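subagent[fold] <- orchestrator: predict structure for attached chain, return tokens only, no commentary.
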Amino acid sequence: MSIWARGDRTGRVGEALLMLEGQGIIDGLEILASEDRPYRVRIPAGIVHMDEDEASMFALGAVVGSFGNVARQRA
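subagent[fold] -> orchestrator:
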């Protein structure tokens, strides 16, 4: 079983960013498929334009930055 509803990489990157938006980690998201850098991520510093590779690494970094300490806590 997969946690991803979308099967291709582009869909998974978009879905990861949507999950970050839903958790309040990013302030907004717009995806314009016809652009060279289709991912527009709104963060407190402004809007960041990214391609798919940059967006996937951003999503990974945002998750680690937001949840890394929680994952490392010992019960």
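orchestrator: received. Logging for downstream: The mean pLDDT is 89. Residues 52-72 form the longest helix (21 residues).
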